[in-house]
Amino acid sequence: MFSVAREIEALRDSGAIPAEAAAPLIAQQKRQIVSLYAELRFLTWAGVMLIVTGVGVLVKNHLDEIGPLAIAVAITLGAAGCYAWAIYKRTRTASLVDDYLLLLAALLLSADLGYIEHTWHLLGANWKEHLLILAVIHGVTAYTFGSRLVLSVSIASLAAYLGVQRSLDTIWGSSRDTAIRGFVCAAIVIGWRLLDARFRKSRTFAPVFDHYAANLAFWSSLILSADKDLRLLGCAIAVGLAAASAIYGVKTHSEMFVIYACVYGVIALDIAVVNLVPELAALFIMMSSIVAVVSLFLIHAHMRKEEA
Fold first, then answer.
1. pLDDT one-digit tens code per residue, 223-249
2. Which end of the chain has fewer CB atoms < 10 Å from its terminal CB, N or C?
3. Helices H, strands E: what count in the chain?
4. How far apart, in whole angstroms, are the C-alpha atoms of residue 87 and residue 64?
């Protein structure tokens, strides 16, 4: 197990870090204390996903028995209850569950509007407009409550409205139009981020914008690489994005962007080599995978040491 306890002790002994500040860091590195915050966040998120999934299964299996109107009203009431709790807790001490209840409200509202549109076709041929409406509603909610989780739902709704497919199975079946829409969506997210930085003092939303923009751009470049005529262009764009992501990750000490660079960059290089030199494809894929894994391990160790 990688540990920097000795380095922290050395800094404490030299006077660079106060003893009271060093004590919890040393205890954490020696596993004398362990934070469960990440695990609790995951369990809360998993609970929200199970509830939403359960609602979908209930609607599917009992549609004829309950009736579409009753289902729509029930989901609306559930979402309204979650929003009411979020409003109630807004002026009080926040807890870990509160933001996830707001996420549950946003997901229930999305499911409700989607179900209503699918059942009654209120928008007719313009049915996709309900996705734009959801993106606006979730965006306003995110800024009202300062919720990064709901902001991610807003961006996802915007991407769906623009026709960006997120499933891995659609990469090889998507057209270059999908890739263009993905790049457009990434550009919109970047523009949104710039406006957020210009008019909002808090920078809590910046990571959400950064991760969405990066992944949208990377996926779009991989979709281009699946096009026979634009394969090398897509690979070149992905490699360029990987270089920019690695620089940004090192500069901001964001390990995820370095991971993006390694994973997406290696995939793009593998596709290019398979296309240009197919006889060396197996060897190159094996070697590039080994280099990527070793690089990720070394970068992870280096960043953890710097953080400590």
1. 999 888 899 999 999 999 999 999 999
2. N
3. 13, 0
4. 35
The residue to which tokens 């966040």 are assigned: 41
Report whether 236 contacts 180 (CB < 8 A).
Answer: no
DSSP 235-256: HHHHHHHHHHHHHHHHHHT-HH
Please report the DSSP string for 66-131 in residue order. H-HHHHHHHHHHHHHHHHHHHHHHHTS---HHHHHHHHHHHHHHHHHHHHHHHHH-TTGGGTTHHH
Cα 174–179–185 angle (5° rounding)? 130
Token representation of residue 192: 């949104």
Distance CA 151, CA 164 (A): 17
Can you give the pLDDT at residue 57? Answer: 87
**Better pLDDT: 304 or 115:** 115
Is 209 in contact with 196 (CB distance < 8 Å)? yes
The DSSP line for 16-81 is SS-HHHHHHHHHHHTTSS---HHHHHHHHHHHHHHHHHHHHHHHHHSHHHH-HHHHHHHHHHHHHH
Q: What is the pTM of this model?
A: 0.85
Residue 143 has, within 13 A of its CA and on its CB side, a CA count of 15
Q: Report DSSP state, residue 279.
A: G
**Which amino acid, 259?**
I
Q: Which residues have a Cβ under 8 Å from the Cβ of 157 and sit 6 or more positions away?
A: 110, 131, 132, 134, 135, 138
Q: How far apart are CA 52 and CA 47, in angstroms?
A: 9
